[in-house]
Amino acid sequence: MLYFLRRRSLTSLLPLLFVLVGVFVLARLTGDPTSLYLPESATAEQRRAFAASHGFDDPVWKQLLHYLQGIPHLDFGTSLRTGQTAASMALRAFPNTLQLAFATMLISVVVAVVLGSWAAYRPNSLADRISSLLSMTAGSVPDFWFAIMGVWIFAVILGVLPTSGTDNGLLSWVLPVVTLCVRPIGVLTQVVRGAMVSALSAPYVRLARSKGATDVRLVTHHALRNAAAPALTVAGDLAVGLINGAVVVETIFGWPGIGKLMIDSILQRDFAVLQACVLLTALSIFVLNILIDLGYALLDARVRETVKA
Amino acid sequence: MNDGSTTHQPLLSVRDLTKTFSVRHAGKTKTLRALDGVSLELHRGETLGLVGESGCGKSTLARTLLMLERPDSGSISFGGVDPHALSGKDLLDFRRRVQMVFQDPFASLNARMSAGAIISEPWRTHRSLYPSSRDRAARVRELLHLVGLRPSDAEKYPQEFSGGQRQRLGIARALALNPDLIVCDEPVSALDLSVQAQVLNLLNDLQQELGVAYLFISHDLSVVRHVADRVAVMYLGRVVEGGATEPTFDEPLHPYTSALMSAAPSLDRAGKREQIILEGEIPSPINPPSGCRFRTRCWRATEECATVTPPLVHDDAAPGHTAECFHPLQPAAAAAS
Amino acid sequence: MSAAPNLESARNRPRSVAFGLLAVGLALTGSACGVSSSSTSSDFGDTVRIVLPEEPPSLEPCDSSNTGDGVVERSNITEPLTELDLATGELHPLLATEWKKTTPTTYTYTLRSGVKFSDGSAFDAEDAAFSIDRTVNNTELGCFVAGYVFGDEKVQVKAVDATTLTVSTAEPDPILPLRLSFVEMVPSEMSTTEKVREPIGTGPYEIKKWDAGQKLTLAANPKYWGDQPAYKTATYVWRSEGSVRAAMVKEGEADLATQIGPDDGAGDLEVQFPDDQTAALRIQGYIPPLNDMRVRQAINYAIDREGLVKSLFNSDTTIAEQLIPEGITGFNDSLKPWPTDVAKAKQLIAEAKADGVPTSTPIRLVGRSAQFPKIEEIIQVIQKELTEIGLNVKIEMVDTKGSTELQQRPFPKNPGPYLLMIQHGNQAGDAAFSVDQYMLSNGFQSAFGTPELDAMIKSAEKQEGDARQAAFEKVFAYEPTHVGQFAYIAHMTGMMAIASGVDYKPNVNTENEMHLAEMTPKK
Amino acid sequence: MTTMIDPTDGVAPETGATPPPRSGRLSMWRLLLRDRMATVALVVLVLIVLSTVGGSLILGDKSNDQDLARGAIAPFSLDHGWLYVLGSDKLGRSMIARMVVGGRTTLAVAVPAVLISLVIGSLIGMWAGYHRGWRETVAMRVADVIMSFPSLLMAVVVLYVFSPSASMIVVVLAITRIPIYLRTARAESAELQSRTFVDAARTFGTRPTAIIRRHVFPIVLPTLLTVATLDFCYVMLAESSLSFLGIGIQPPGVSWGLMVSQGRQYLQTAWWLSFFPGLAIVVTAVCSTLLASWVRIATDPSQRWRLTVPRKAAARRRRQAPIVEGEVS
Amino acid sequence: MTATSLDLDGATRPRGDVALDVENLSVDIRTPFGTVRAVDSVSFTARRGETVALLGESGCGKSLTATSIVGLVDPVVDIADGAIRLDGEDLIGMSPKRRRAAAGPELAIVFQDALTALNPVYTVGTQLAEPFRIHRGLSRKEARAEAIRLMERVGIPEPESRVDSYPHQFSGGMRQRLLIAIAVALSPAVLLADEPTTALDVTVQAQIMKLLRDLREERDMAVVLITHDLALVAEQADRVVVMYAGNVVESGPVDAVFSTPKHPYTKGLLESVPVAAERGADLKSIGGAPPELSAIPSACVYQDRCPLVRDICRTDRPPLREVAEDHAAACHFSEEVSR
């Protein structure tokens, strides 16, 4: 297990460092944010003072070094925009996204497993074709379009759901979560279906059938667990991709999550916050990947042996 | 044919060949000894049968001979030179002289290439062999004819052939470079019985006609018995018994050879026979038994088998018939050399 | 093969991992529900709910001339000594009851007595002196107000007694009281090295809770020196979409939505009000072909301001003829909008072309995305119109950063000819703040000028009273005919959506400071 | 294995049946025509490509024809001529013309992005997978780096640095999608390099590049094309998302995503401005997904029978109750 | 090691009741190119305590016959005609529920590929216990005890400790034993063994065949051995059914069929075995290749490869007719087929 964690860390933290440095340098290339943070009429001296106090007059490598030195002390810099520490802003926004993502994945997985298994149970049947078409469509709908159409229909025309925000209890969750669910459900249903079709035609299912097992038992007991591994892989990718969706959905629904914070930080050249968000996102993806690997181990003894060692 | 005497230099000579692989087993890296000191000789125009069960290392030996794997130690001498020391033109020349026929006639042919393209593929590397396209086309027709296919078959794709025909294609491809040695790795085990006979006949005819030598690898004793001049029996990376075919199979020295012969079902229902059923299975080559490899399943094993590698013994009755055993089944003398 | 106990654990471990995962997940969803239910719609009547385009970055008082902060903070949480009425350009007493010029370089303020900060401490001249010093003279904080209204100017402040304060400058400053009206009063305990997010003030409201990213709640300040406001609490949320803000008011999720556009669908809840903003096209007039007066005039002739204003701006918007709207000191009410005359424009271009002006050079038409509603459409219309008179115009939509680079000095090297859509707001109420920046030949946001104009501006700035007004009027009359740096488009109006239950009359100041105390529930 | 023309595998192998005759081998076209959904998808895609590419030649100018008097005409009316059947925007520009031009932009970004990532990703992937060892490790680590961060955010950051332009979007999207092809090509190539016919080629002394060209590439290609078809859908959505967020296509350029974004502020007064371009994205994406899924099955010998087998005799089969047909109905 | 005496004298043992009766079974496969008949009017019976071999080369329809009997065919496969009677009860007309009830206690199958036939994600104990859980409703604990007992019976060492291992932790031979254990768990009347040893080494094959033999005796099962290996048939089976191109061409006691084949195909097969020929000499081989399923001749299926072919063979299909007691062949000229 320790070996496994160490190996994972080496293989995953390296990319993480790459991403961090890459974003740092790229962000610096967007230019000195001084002009954004001082009034139009600020004098040249005021501008110089501002740049100097935030280190924007140093060469990029020096700024990077300074930044990296701060990380071990959990110093991720201060937001230019709000004056708060970047870490506190990122950490405050993160749970909101995490809740959204968790609810989305929970719903998506449940729906996809049910729909996918149902479709796979009778390939080429009408039910299969309908659910395939639906899931393909779901996987092809742009989330931003779905979101604003949802707002338009359910909030503006029908007035049954709030337009945005987090103030209306569970109702506030409906549109964002449904929007985020659409693509994962579409993609995952197809994967589950494919995996279930091959699992259901696998020799071990024939063996179970020759033991007199009922169809329900074949699906739930024998096929599903074998079909879970490919579904897990895709679910992991989708969970990472949820951050993409979160950017759009949080922007539209005014959801105070990390995606919106990142976009705002980029727009405002609030580098410290951007980097804190990037770090946090990359870290959570790292953790997610470990969880997925543990999931594989959970499903399959062969994987477990490599993890255990 | 050659009876194994070494009056002139053998075509192929293998000495103490060892090949290990690193494998991950239960999370740890272990060493798998696929070949553990294998020695063989093969003469021009001769067929050497290589017998053994799965995991005994016979395929690894074939791959090493064809330089698909690099041995850890030991030497291969082909026509007096070690191919693993070659490079450039010399290496290409060795590649030309040694060819292989693979077990699976489906997998060993690229389904996207026509029969003609498959047969002429070697010449795309060995361009000097048949420089003009007309030569190549003529040679393809010739080879197809040689293996019993129609010249018009050159246009067809592998999946349009039956299994036996595909194996003929594989043989034609191996012949394209006019090799001196063809390593046949289970060439008929994937074929149906009725087709197997056709292919064996073809291989036999080609040898008569072209004088090519075969290293014939098979787990099917009846097939080996039919084609091989000499045989070598492998167990867990070692050749445990070898010699001319008849004495080796009829009067085996090594208990393993005897058990193998006994276990193979026979068509002959005329008389009841004692069948030796070995217990257990072949131990893993990752952690082979000490001393004699076979001792864990051998009914004649004694304590000394567990400690020391058994000596090479010679069959008194048949020269060249040797085995590695403390307790040979036939009267035998310890190796003099 | 491992021994049996190992196998046991191998079987059991994954199961416990699964339960662990599930537990974590449930905890997360649980807390999520907690978050959302904690802030359900509160008791109506007592609360006014406002939806802004963006969250206030911080409520640091010395940054309050930043619209995003000021709209929440000014005169709600903190108050200045005096308050500017943009409609009239006059100063009203607030925390100071009186002020007068006591020497050419010194003003003396008499402060209101009995004022308390919301934390209970008393407000006195020491606090006022501290606040002014902190805002104007402090270099460490980099205060927005300092840069915006004071520039390089430094002041000396002195608390003479508890209610008397003197403020002096090195040179005589005729509009020092106007500048000082931007300084919010804070207790003297406030940090001078770090910006403060949640300040203490003397205003009618105090900060109750700020869920960063989600919601800001203000509560009436019980220690307020004036009358208690009608609403006990005020909440601010923020949505970047105008249509969403409008819909929230329409759907009853909010009472007031600021900065909405004509197509955001607020319907009869829309309220328009005069604004201090003016939209104009700034012409980078030193780069060929824009360095030719005829080309600049042709641009002015080509734009159909009437059509634009009618279809793409708020309905009360008026066509602009100068940089500042009515109500600002220096506004020239005799100027007429530039007429639309496409034929004339074409002719001017043709003439310029005949004289060798490179009129076919590609000209960048730069707009800042989301600077004001419909800017994209407006830019596209202008591009079409300029193309029609024979200019080669390419649209570029940029972000704030991109537009500031082109807007402020130093300008980029070799940018090529460009036209920049600007929106200028003069919230200080005096033309000096506009012309200094936009018309001096080396003005911070001015592309070019003439020595004559510079001289006119310099002398106008030294005047006071009616003379000052007349001098600036001349500047505005002179600029279009002799310099022609701008193609004025429109004096903007603001638009907000106000729920039928709330009584509030927005005014020209509303976008800079929205006084909660002026809002009352409708009976 | 991805060989598409091995009819022996056409029948599920468990039946142990001998291959059907080659004479009856179906061309891909006939196979396609048998699947109505896939056929419709292909027809729609072709129509979209033709109308956007061809249509923008005709309507290119119309898409920028402003007429403030004709602003915001509602759709489904012929009163203003056929150009206004789908309505007009606030500046009076024909929605049809803008959809056509926007579609061309969307395709002009998505197609090159897919092609670039396809070529680069598969070349590196095949090379890495064939050679294994450090080459494989390095290639996979690079893919990990790219994949370890949400692509949209990466695109946002990069586009802010290098200012958004169509070519920049193509580059960014191409780079973020390279790992998809790299991984697929590597996996297939790694599997193929251990196959016997590759071994056979090695025994002739064939060089690795020649083996990759001759034996690996033709076999990996169908899979990669399937992935590319599916990825086209993804890239198109990504472009739309970027344009929606304001860092993709810049006005006065127009793409479907940008149109949705621009129409958003008119949602209450002119819903069609966002609705139609969004619908166009969905239709195009669904069609490419449908086609990809068909190609995937059609090129997979173990799945292909699903496309071709006549459906009949259900009643009789039900008594046999094979699992995949199930008796629960 | 054990040395056992092969009992090759099956014909003399008393026969039990007919457990499996396959009559005129015809099976169609729907392919993209049309429907083909993969199994054509196959009939045979298997009695308790005897081993019947279905012998034939790949693609002859022997495996399809087996999977049709146990009802595990693919969705593209239709049973077109015929009857399959298990202890007199027709399987084809059975309700799914009754069929499930029969699967295990009455009819079981051993698959060829033991690695893929065992579910990789469950312990072998779970899988061995499943028949008891399904059919006997035993508790988890009881079923596990039964599983251990079974493992012991099929010769897996240390069953108590290995019951919680996963399939991949066993060798090929052990996995095959596990599959056999699952199949015989409920002592079925009929056990189909579909190439049970093809993937195994000869020394292991010998062990497995002995196990099957012992279990057959012990539980009085009818064993249907599906194989292509003539020698295995010779050693293991009592009766043999030779199939070619979906048809039964010859059937009868192994001794009779192998010593005096009455169909030229059977004879050709027997002569193709290398041991029959002298080393280095040419083997007697059957020319050509079996026909494609879609191109099976309408008259004699073997006409294209038959050395005895005459005009009638191209026009009339020879019926499977009795040529000696309990020995039938489908050849117009079966008398001419001799050694």
TrEMBL record, chain A:
It comes from the Bacteria. One of its GO terms (cellular component) is plasma membrane. It is a multi-pass membrane protein. SUPFAM superfamilies: MetI-like. GO terms for molecular function: dipeptide transmembrane transporter activity. The keyword Acyltransferase does not apply. The keyword Protein biosynthesis does not apply. It is found in: Cell membrane. Keywords: Cell membrane, Membrane, Transmembrane, Transmembrane helix, Transport. Belongs to the binding-protein-dependent transport system permease family. This is Peptide/nickel transport system permease protein.
TrEMBL record, chain B:
It comes from Nocardioides terrae. Belongs to the ABC transporter superfamily. Gene3D superfamilies: P-loop containing nucleotide triphosphate hydrolases (3.40.50.300). Residues 12-261 form the ABC transporter domain. The keyword Nucleotide-binding applies. GO terms for biological process: peptide transport; transmembrane transport. This is Oligopeptide transport system ATP-binding protein. The keyword Transport applies. Keywords: ATP-binding, Nucleotide-binding, Transport. One of its GO terms (molecular function) is ATP binding. It comes from the Bacteria. It holds the Pfam family oligo_HPY.
UniProtKB/TrEMBL annotation, chain C:
Keywords: Signal. InterPro entries: SBP_5, SBP_5_dom. GO terms for biological process: peptide transport. Residues 90-406 form the Solute-binding protein family domain. One of its GO terms (molecular function) is peptide transmembrane transporter activity. This is Peptide/nickel transport system substrate-binding protein. It comes from Nocardioides terrae.
Automatic annotation (TrEMBL), chain D:
It is found in: Cell membrane. Residues 1-22 are annotated as: Disordered. It is a multi-pass membrane protein. Its main location: membrane. The keyword Phosphoprotein does not apply. This is Peptide/nickel transport system permease protein. Coiled coil: none annotated. One of its GO terms (biological process) is transmembrane transport. It comes from Nocardioides terrae. The keyword Transport applies. The chain crosses the membrane at residues 37-59, 107-130, 216-237, 270-295. Belongs to the binding-protein-dependent transport system permease family. Keywords: Cell membrane, Membrane, Transmembrane, Transmembrane helix, Transport. GO terms for cellular component: plasma membrane. Residues 103-292 form the ABC transmembrane type-1 domain.
